[in-house]
Amino acid sequence: MSGHALRIAGFVLVGLAVLAFGIRFALGRVFNTGGAPADAVQKTAVSRDGTGIAYEQTGAGPVVILVSAALADRDGARPLARQLAQSFTVVNYDRRGRGKSGNAKPYSVEREVEDVAALANGTPGAVFLFGSSSGSVLALDAASRLGPKVKKVCLYEPPFIVDGSRPPIPDALAEEITTVLSANDRGEAVAPFFGKGMGIPPPGIVIMRLFMPAWSDMKQLAHTIPYDLTLLAGTQSGKPLPVDRWSAATSPALVAVGARSEQFFHSGANALTGRLPGAEYRSLDGLDHSAVLVAPAPPAAAMRQFFGSGQ
């Protein structure tokens, strides 16, 4: 290769490196939550099985407990918590196996419900619950079991697949990811979750690996992917939602979906609204599945309106 060609190649490589750095820097700014609020009070609740559930408390007013999505700990809900702390006492916790919370085994959905119960029972009176994505399913399970302790529940984009608007989640995905985790390959556990579970094509996953600063954080939480798939079992098959799972739910519910999100979120939300007494479906303009992290003001406004009407 000539000297001129080498110089061109060098310029191209430098340009690509600068571009890659710029993309990572930009994504880092978009997904930066700012860390724990300076006024957050760090606490720990003890669940029924003795597992410590770490949380931070901010704000003042009626209590709202935030339940995070898959591959996320309390940090992912901090932007929303900041918005809500103007009107509520916000309990933002690390779900079992994440952050500073314990991870007693074997896992079961009932234990995660008991974790929410420990947080709710640590406060006087009834509480509000909020859950995002798979966390919304856990919030609804908890509301079904805790009865009058939960005043209202707000669910943002439960990832139900109830029709042909997107392919169902493969039944073998949980086993596949568990097998990969047994080989201690966390990165290869995250990839099929996004690929087969969320429908992101292989080139998109490569870009996420290379440019998304949060990829390393998600790898650290990869062992909790089977937890969320267990939580979602029976709700992503392309068939109607289970008839009896939330039959005991009596708390008024708001099921919200971003207007820009895929159709299957809207189909699932409408199906759930038909299952729950007193439930309301609402489409939030301009939002998608990332709203809790990158655009928390509109969801917070919807929650203040919905929760506030019952104070």
Tell me what the structure shows.
The structure is a single chain. This protein is α/β, with parallel strands linked by helices and 311 residues long. The chain folds into two domains: 41-164 and 232-308, Alpha/Beta hydrolase fold, catalytic domain (Rossmann fold), CATH 3.40.50.1820; 173-227, no CATH class. Helix content is 43%, strand content 16%. The protein has twelve helices and eight strands. The chain has helices at 3-30, 78-84, 109-121, 134-146, 173-182, 186-197, 202-211, 215-220, 225-231, 263-275, 291-294, 297-308, and strands spanning 41-46, 52-59, 63-67, 89-93, 127-132, 150-156, 253-258, 279-284. Strands 1-2-4-3-5-6-7-8 form an eight-stranded mixed sheet, with helices on both faces. A hairpin with a 5-residue loop joins β1 (41-46) and β2. α3 (109-121) packs across α4 and α5 (173-182) packs antiparallel against α9 (225-231). The protein is globular, with a radius of gyration of 20 Å. Mean pLDDT is 90; it is low at 9-31.
In short:
The protein has twelve helices and eight strands. By secondary structure, it is an alpha/beta fold.
Please give the structural blueprint.
Layout lengths: L2 H28 L10 E6 L5 E8 L3 E5 L10 H7 L4 E5 L15 H13 L5 E6 L1 H13 L3 E7 L16 H10 L3 H12 L4 H10 L3 H6 L4 H7 L21 E6 L4 H13 L3 E6 L6 H4 L2 H12 L3
Parallel strand pairs: 3-4, 3-5, 5-6, 6-7, 7-8
Antiparallel strand pairs: 1-2, 2-4
